[in-house]
Amino acid sequence: MSWKIPWGAALFAIAFAVPFFGSPLYTYLATDVAIWALFAISLNLLVGYTGLVSFGHAAYFGIGAYTCGLLMKNGGVAFPWAFLAAGVVAALFAAVYGYFCVKLTKVYFAMLTLAFSWISWAVCFRWNEVTGGDQGLFGVPSPNLEWMKVLPLIGSRPPSEYFHFLTIVLVALGIWAARRIVESPFGLILTIVRDNPERAQSIGIDVRRHRLAVFIVAGALAGFAGALFGILNRGVYPDFMNWTKGAEVLIMALLGGIGTFYGPVMGAFLILWLNQEITAITEYWSLVLGIILAALILALPAGVLGSLIDIGRAVRQRRTGASAPPISRDSAR
To answer: What residue numbers bound the domain in which 64 lies?
Structure first.
């Protein structure tokens, strides 16, 4: 009898329960991991499912953060509307940038996405009157979450934890939406485009249109993640859309396993947790973290979760003594 572990529900329950069992530090860390997990999954829609390696995905993360921060701080807009606007504006920029990017492939696509990210960073870095320039937009207000006091279980917790619960729910909805896309006929077409774009084109699939569509969706999800990240840090800064942020989230996806859906979640957790623990041990944390990440990537080329799936498949085949049916990492739960 075969059965599947509901990884999505399990991860949601674990993340949601952190404040009940952990310290405020680990509550903050869990919130941070959740936001980066959504960011990494949005990138994985491009890299893992469509075969488009983007070096400039941080642009939409930063655009979403600035949109939400500016509306809440300078416009007095309530969080729900500012949050929705963050995703919409990021999607609009992704539509404009993506229109040009999807015309190219491979390294040319990657470099053009990086160029657009640099343009976005330069505008935010120099536009002092609106974005605060190199000083950033500090003092982004926290959303009014007093209404959560009436909720069972949550209402009895300190108000400082309310944003964590809200973030976990919003991130879960974003991941659920990404999962539905991956499992839909549209998601199947994306994998066909990834594996053989020439053949996909020959059978009538508009490759560019599908690439642009997923580019926009990934941009919107990154914008939502950026909005939450800006509030968590009580400020938005130009480095949110710097190429280093894009490289960081790409490493998360690769480390966890771009051939799996939840691999980027594991990658986000590993990097942020290792960073937290190593920083407390040595001042040479960046060197130690780099060595550990390099060792993991070299030892597990399929990513941590992808390698675990391969090991599980091999163990099952050995126990049955026969060749087990292949398990698609794309549908790993």
So the answer is: 12-258
